[in-house]
């Protein structure tokens, strides 16, 4: 059985003042409306970020009793992982209509935190926390510093990711930075340094928001209002909790998750028309581009030159503005999927990638800890 995404939507975004469950409800009901399906049809639910019992709590709030749920918490890539689990559950006949959802009011709550204090005997507590790192800023800065050293690239390569994201955001009325005006490489380099070599402009936004996607069989999706977006392949890899156990800060689990996704789909990186990569920090994009095989090891800086990932470039990347300029509500991986679906449907207006037929969504969670890749395609 082939599985497809039949609906996709965002909740309110930016600074909403809404409770998390309100944002979840907005996202779910809007995605179901997009799919042309009633709430009562939902018999599978995957979500996290509400509590330890996220799926249970959201289902109860909506009056659902799903036959299948998943609340795996793996940071920002959890939602790409959910796609794999949902496909498998639908193929197995365990459920028929799965909603993957997320919502966070992180900006209204004035917090970057998704959890509490580290446990007493974790590697972070024993070996890292005594040095007072900013979580997660300092950790990604370590990876960035190492990457610049081993590749010979300059900070301008990191800045290009932020500049390109802003250019895409200027084409997206829903983007948090839509009205902020263009960003230059010089602006990024001159922004306040937080943890060398990363400035405030190298880091993702802190916003409220969320989204949802609806999955069902391709056969059924073909009878629904919107063009189905087919799940072609998926892969995942969990590597390290923190930097203490990371052997190489410049090699990520994207190597494995990407290879598995491409193998399942029978595709290669050259087949991808539009890519949505998690951009918690600018360095995350460079490491993901290399790990996924879009360029060789140490070659991401050269890959980005010449406006390649900007609007009008040859490699459309993070076409909604990404976590850097569109929205980043604590965990961003669900919104990668929403934008990929919209691009394949041709719904993106001024930022639409002409003729897009294959999209890649790649999530990263934790401290470069968890990685999940999904390949999506138009229904041929």
Number of helices: 13
- CATH H level of the largest domain: which superfamily? Thiolase/Chalcone synthase
Radius of gyration: 19 Å
Can you tell me the CATH architecture of the largest domain? Answer: 3-Layer(aba) Sandwich
Overall pLDDT confidence: 95
Per the CATH scheme, the topology name of the largest domain is: Peroxisomal Thiolase, Chain A, domain 1
Which term fits the overall shape? globular
Percent of residues in helices: 25-40%
Strand order of the largest sheet: 3-2-4-7-1-8-11-10-9
Helix and strand composition category: alpha/beta
Q: Which oligomeric state applies?
A: single chain
Q: Write the H/E string, N to C.
A: EHEHEHEHHHHEEEHEHEHHHHEE
Summarize the main sheet.
9 strands, mixed
Question: Can you identify the CATH class of the largest domain?
Answer: Alpha Beta
Tally of separate domains: 2
